[in-house]
Q: What sequence folds into this?
């Protein structure tokens, strides 16, 4: 049988990693934990380097960092939140860098694991955004006012409210964080498995018979998808960040 | 192939944990990492970058303003020079015109004066000529009179000889002619 050599690993083998340190304790540090730490360290190093290069005409790392900061600053903070969102810029920039670096480890050779393909990363981030926008809403509009604005759409006749209020609660306070987390998680998990599938197929073909080189599709797909996944990494980081900005901004102003 | 996939599915379902559910350790480390990132980024790593970008934006804005000012200044100077040049050109034309007019007037004057001089000279000449002629005529008259008198005397003296008188007349005439 031609494809007998294909050896798909069990899905848990490519997602659940053995702990490297503190095994057995709640602080078990595994590959995903390391990647999140690396994302933090890399982001800080990038900013440290960019901040201390301080050239008038930015080049290299400084240029890269500044382009992203500029992009988030203009396209997310100012466009979505307006000038009053400026204090949130470091928070959103951190969010973007952290998610993007966690994502992009998907295609980094020998690591090839997006930390965000584990619910452990997107879920706390989404939860944090959820807590943030509710806290911002309560702080800027007052407790009763904020929840009233968020739950009761204006200009809706009384009887319809019976229908709409549960929907608004569901959409604003339950679906939002859930969708935020699942969108990121699902995209990166799918990308990870897709790359894995084509990698396994390519490997099987090359190992099985050199003649199968004439079947370049899996490898071509692998190459193309690797590029695509870099794009997805940036896109998902952007979507997560811009939605966070939108939620916080809505909570700051009266949403309705 | 289906058996392989089935085996993979079986392996995953029999795996130690569900791939969807997060692991405690991972949650702790990711929260820790991100918390650390936010604190350090906000306190220490982001401000210099932000300050630098703001400074640069200010500098560029300042430079642009300065350039705008310099451009306006240059424009004004250029306008001034243009105006001066035009003025100089107008002045030159004016001077040239004046010179031409002066020359023309001078020429006309000179011509008139020359004509006048010529006329005066002509008149004076004519006058001189006329006086000279009158003088000559008067002299001639006196001469002719005395000559006629002289001739009459001679004719009276030699009235006998017609031929001799004829010769006398001839000599008289030739005397006048000379």
A:
């Amino acid at each position: 049988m031609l494809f007998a050599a294909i050896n798909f690993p069990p899905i848990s083998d490519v997602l659940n990693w053995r702990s490297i340190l503190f095994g057995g304790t709640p602080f078990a540090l595994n590959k995903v934990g390391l990647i999140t730490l690396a994302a933090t360290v890399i982001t800080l190093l990038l900013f440290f380097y960019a901040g201390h290069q301080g050239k008038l005409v930015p080049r290299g790392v400084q240029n890269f960092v500044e382009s992203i900061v500029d992009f988030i600053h203009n396209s997310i903070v100012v466009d979505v939140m307006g000038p009053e969102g400026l204090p949130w810029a470091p928070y959103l920039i951190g969010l973007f860098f952290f998610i993007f670096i966690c994502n992009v480890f998907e295609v980094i050779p020998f690591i090839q694991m997006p930390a965000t393909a584990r619910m452990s990363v997107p879920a706390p981030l989404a939860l944090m955004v959820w807590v943030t926008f509710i806290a911002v809403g309560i702080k800027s509009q007052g407790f009763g006012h904020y929840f009233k604005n968020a739950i009761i759409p204006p200009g809706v006749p009384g009887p319809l409210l019976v229908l709409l209020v549960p929907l608004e609660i569901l959409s604003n306070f339950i679906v939002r964080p859930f969708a935020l987390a699942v969108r990121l998680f699902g995209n990166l998990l799918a990308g990870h498995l897709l790359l894995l599938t084509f990698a396994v197929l390519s490997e099987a073909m090359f190992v099985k018979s050199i003649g199968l080189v004439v079947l370049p599709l899996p490898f071509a797909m692998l190459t193309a998808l690797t590029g695509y996944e870099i794009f997805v990494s940036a896109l998902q980081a952007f979507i997560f960040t811009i939605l966070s900005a939108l939620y916080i901004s809505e909570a700051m102003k009266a949403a309705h | 192939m289906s058996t392989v996939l089935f085996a993979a599915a079986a392996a995953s379902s029999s795996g130690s944990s569900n791939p969807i559910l997060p692991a405690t350790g991972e949650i702790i480390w990711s929260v820790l990492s991100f918390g650390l990132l936010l604190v350090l980024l906000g306190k220490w790593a982001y401000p210099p970058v932000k300050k630098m970008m703001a400074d640069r934006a200010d500098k560029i804005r300042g430079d642009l303003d300065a350039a705008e000012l310099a451009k306006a200044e240059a424009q004004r100077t250029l306008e001034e020079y243009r105006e001066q040049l035009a003025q100089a050109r107008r002045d030159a034309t004016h001077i040239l015109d004046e010179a031409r007019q002066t020359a023309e007037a001078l020429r006309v004057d000179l011509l008139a004066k020359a004509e006048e001089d010529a006329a005066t000279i002509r008149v004076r000449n004519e006058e001189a000529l006329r006086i000279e002629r009158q003088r000559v005529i008067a002299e001639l008259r006196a001469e002719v009179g005395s000559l006629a008198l002289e001739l009459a005397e001679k004719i009276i003296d030699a009235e006998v000889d017609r031929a001799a008188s004829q010769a006398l007349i001839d000599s008289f005439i030739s005397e006048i002619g000379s």
About this structure: Residues 1-16 of chain B have pLDDT under 50 and may be disordered. Chain B touches chain A through 42 residues (CB under 8 Å). The two ends of chain B are 165 Å apart (CA to CA).
